[in-house]
Specification:
Blueprint lengths: L5 H14 L5 H9 L20 E4 L2 E3 L2 H11 L6 E5 L5 H8 L3 E6 L2 H13 L5 E5 L12 E6 L8 H5 L1 E12 L4 E9 L2 E10 L13
Parallel strand pairs: 3-4, 3-6, 4-5, 6-7
Antiparallel strand pairs: 1-2, 7-8, 8-9
Bound molecules: S-adenosylmethionine.
The site of S-adenosylmethionine has 26 residues, from strand 2, helix 4 and strand 4.
C-alpha cells in the first residue's frame, strides 16, 4: 500500500467537510491543526483522513470527521468557554475543542483509553485539558457550570445531571435515542427555559452509566 501524505489527505478531508456543509472556518482551521493519524493505530494510518469512524479498541471508535466537525460547529464555541466533554475516546475531539476554548474537562469511562489519550495530549503540548476516568453521565459537578457540553456517546434520554451543569446561555450537543440510531440533539439554556432541536440522525456507541445505558 502507498504511504499517505498527511498534508494532502488532510486538504482532501477539509474539502469533503466543506462539501458536506461545514462552514465555520474556525472549526475547519482547528481540523488542520490536529493530525488525525496520531490518534489511530498504526494499522489504520492509511485511512486516518477518510471521512469514516475507525476502531480504537475496546469496542469503541474515533468518530467520523464530519460528525466531529458538525458537533463542534453546533456548540458555537467561544474562546472563553469552559467545556465538558463526555467520552474522551482517542482524544481527537478533545484536542479540537482545546484549540479554541479556555479549558476542556473530559471524562472517559474506559481507564486504558483515558490514560492513553491523556498521555497523547500531554505529549502534543495541550495544557488546557483536565482528564477524569469515570462515569461521565454524572458530569463533573466540582467544575460546573460549563458553557458547553458535548457527549460523544448515545444516551437513552437527556441526562438531567448534565443539563443541571450547563450554564445559562450554554449549549449542549448529545445523541439521544435507542442503541441503533439517535437524534443529534442541541439543547440551549435560556433565561426562559431550555430550547431544543434535532440537527441530524446519527449512530453512536452507547453512553454506559448511571444516567445512560446499564452495562
Ligand atoms: N470523541 C472520541 C474521539 O474523538 O475519539 C470518540 C468517542 S467514542 C465514539 C465514545 C466514547 O465514550 C468511548 O470511548 C466510550 O468508552 C465512552 N463512554 C461511554 N460511556 C461513557 C460514560 N458514561 N462516561 C464516559 N465515557 C463514556
Amino acid at each position: 500500500m502507498e504511504p499517505i501524505n498527511p498534508a494532502i489527505a488532510l486538504r482532501r478531508l477539509i474539502k469533503t467537510l466543506r462539501t458536506k456543509g461545514i462552514s465555520d472556518e474556525r472549526v475547519l482551521d482547528a481540523f488542520g491543526k490536529v493530525p488525525r493519524h496520531c490518534f489511530v493505530d498504526g494499522g489504520m494510518y492509511a485511512q486516518a483522513y477518510d471521512d469514516n469512524a475507525l476502531p480504537i479498541g475496546f469496542g469503541q471508535t474515533i468518530s467520523q470527521p464530519y460528525i466531529v466537525a458538525l458537533m463542534t460547529e453546533l456548540l458555537q464555541l467561544e474562546k472563553d468557554d469552559k467545556i465538558l466533554e463526555i467520552g474522551t475516546g482517542s482524544g481527537f475531539q478533545t484536542a479540537l475543542l482545546a484549540q479554541f476554548s479556555r479549558r476542556v474537562y473530559t471524562i472517559e469511562r474506559n481507564r486504558e483509553l483515558g490514560e492513553v489519550s491523556r498521555e497523547r495530549l500531554r505529549e502534543m503540548g495541550y495544557v488546557n485539558v483536565a482528564f477524569k476516568i469515570g462515569d461521565g453521565s454524572l458530569g463533573w459537578p466540582q467544575h460546573s457550570q460549563f458553557n458547553k457540553i458535548i457527549v460523544t456517546a448515545a444516551a437513552p434520554v437527556l441526562p438531567q445531571t448534565l443539563l443541571d451543569q450547563l450554564a445559562e446561555g450554554g449549549r449542549m450537543v448529545i445523541p439521544v435515542g435507542d442503541q441503533h440510531s439517535q437524534d443529534l440533539m442541541v439543547y440551549e439554556k435560556t433565561g426562559q427555559g431550555v430550547e431544543q432541536c434535532c440537527a441530524a440522525h446519527v449512530v453512536f456507541v452507547p453512553l454506559i452509566g448511571q444516567k445512560g445505558w446499564r452495562e
